[in-house]
Amino acid sequence: MPYLKRFDGRKFDETRPITAKVGIIPRADGSAIFQIGNTTAIAAVYGPRELHPKWMQNPNTGILRCEYNMLPFSGHGERVRPGGGRRAREIGMVTENALRPVLDLKEYPNCVVDVYIDLPQTDAGTRCAGITAAAMALADAGIEMKDMVAAVAVGNVQGSIVADLNYDEEQNKTETEGVADIPVAFMPNSGKLTLLQMDGEITRPHLKQALEMGKEVCKRIVAIQKAALRAKYGGSQ
Amino acid sequence: MSDQKQHLLKYLSKGLRYDGRKPTDYRAVSIEYDVSNSAEGSARVRIGKTEVIAGVKMAIEKPYPDTADRGNLMVNAELRPMASPDFESGPPTDQGIELARVVDRGVRESECIDVHDLCIKEGEAVWSVAIDIVAINDDGNLFDAAGLAAIAALRDAKMPGTNDKGKADYDNRTKNKLPLKHVPVPITVFKIGNTFIVDPTTDEENNFDARLTVACKEDNHLCALQKGGEGDLTIDDIDHMVGLAQEKSEWLRKKLR
User: Fold this and answer.
1) Do A192 and B234 touch (CB under 8 A)?
2) Chain B residue with minimal CA distance to A94?
3) pLDDT digits (tens, 9 = 90+) for A104-159
4) Domain at B3-253: CATH architecture
């Protein structure tokens, strides 16, 4: 059965409803909340500040450190053990790689920019929501960025290329056809990609098609990120 | 940019590598099987001077409640301090975790093991399959070496027997192989400057900008992707890297018994 109509009636390239806001954690240097459907990500930025442990300090440049954390009650089903496992560590690392290309931290030797991402509620697409929230929080913190970053999952659900898969779509695997889940992050101005992972199965031409869709969807998400920043700081465009 | 990287880039821009290979050349690959009698299956993979071993252990366990009719698959990787001066003892590093998870995804998502085939009695007993990969000598390209070693060890594995208590009987191993349906082989393509290379040595790996690990099945479908590194990529870069990985994985798959 081809997947011609999405479970929640969305168009193939349509995201779930999005809300975004910056400056939600007053103690942090920068912060943001990004909600997409039933997935909610909160991000806080501290720094640039002195990096501890000291042996990690780099005299040539500041570093970016990202922590991804699903809250214990946020999972689909059983309680998520706090403290983070291998999955959380890996997502923290790919989040750093997704955001690092837009930052220039040479001005901050021996320092760190810490990004903390918490997920109170999840329904697929958490790493992408986290990256999107973190990029807004970095901008809110006033850290110089050469471009924005937005992330979304694209994928192949039974032969159809779709954007922003929800949990039901991710799980919608049949005996004959798999689901490919492909989180991507793009910088809108350069059009370059900073995050790419995939689970599932896809062909080379379909992958290219999915990436092109991801690029366009990310541009639309960036417009929402910018609107949220303007809502706090004003400014036109 | 470090002097080392500038020097490397100068050579790569002319299509040259320090060991005389072309950018898309692989080093010599060898695979040995049954390198540990204790394991249900095992393999040693050498790619140039890089060496990893992988072992498969199986056990009968109670299934998780949400996957009552499916066996369990686990992949773990260790970067032992013996393999490189850059590795240290202690808890796994980000690098080790990423390696294990990328190999895990290649094996799992290809569905080369149908976990339903590992069910003995729904809700009560299933086989668990643990693949442990250990780096013995790191001279670059551990991702491909580890992924190849994992699939080689799985293909080598023989199921243990079952005793009257319903546990695995390791003394009476059967002749039955694991029911494997596909052969996923990962290839990692590195971008350094404007050059794409495969199978980097440590010198090259220490200076890369971005990499993409592509796990390919025998029908050339992709079953897992992972971008690494702080560099960015265009969609055309990715398409090119995927094409190169498909070509190389076909070649590397033929090395398997």
Assistant:
1) yes
2) B228
3) 999 999 999 999 999 999 999 999 999 999 999 999 999 999 999 999 999 999 88
4) 2-Layer Sandwich (3.30)
